[in-house]
Amino acid sequence: MNSNAQELIKAVEAADSSAKLLDAVEDLAAAGLSESIPTLIAALGYNNPGAAVAAVDGLIKIGEPSVKPLLELIDDYNYGARAWAVRALAGIGDPRGLDILLEAAENDFALSVRRAAARGLGTIRWEQMPRLQVLPAQTQVLSTLIIVCVDPEWIVRYAAVTGLESLAKVVKYTQPSLRSQIITQLEKLVQQDTDLAVRTRVFRAQQAINHHEVGELNIATASPETETPHRGEGRRKDED
User: Fold this and answer.
1) Are residues 188 and 115 in the same domain?
2) What does each C-alpha distance from 140 to 6, 106, 108, 233 come to in angstroms?
3) How much is the pLDDT for 117?
4) pTM over 0.85
5) Phi/psi zone of residue 15: left (φ > 0), alpha (ψ -120 to 50 degrees), beta?
6) 190 and 132 inside one domain
């Protein structure tokens, strides 16, 4: 363990107030050091929401190395720590956390956890999953997101739309039947959801999916003499 990691971890362990603990965990998380994973995971169980948020950010920043320790300990956590762990897994997007996210999106009693899980289902890194497992897993994700679209809390349904939009872009060429189901579900939500914010988010998702297609079509049909912009130029970054 390098000296910087040791000093940052010692600062967390020595913190004798909520404010000092928060500062120490934030500093440790910002460093993004894999050696800090056990300490950041421990911080998920502290009675300090600010420190837990910082720990989640740190675990997401570290990424893949955080996943196995999170999964190994998740069943032993108290509910609060487990909820923070779900948020971390959702942010990382590693397929190993998929089952946890599916369960949380449908059944967790905390709307913030269901929301995080629904968003995370749209950002799974499918390239890290064995090819033969991808279609069944994406089908399961779609089924769960459709269920989440009738969640009683609008903010969770909003997150489900975000997940559907992301999934639609991923499966466009590989699983057109899933993409068709997503488009149908979005059309249904526009007509049936009672919350204006959700319907507005659906409309944005539909526009983004169409824009994604039109942009690719324009690039594909551009003449050799036409200079195409670099990817990302002139695009508005989608908001969640």
Assistant:
1) yes
2) 42, 12, 17, 34
3) 96
4) no
5) beta
6) yes
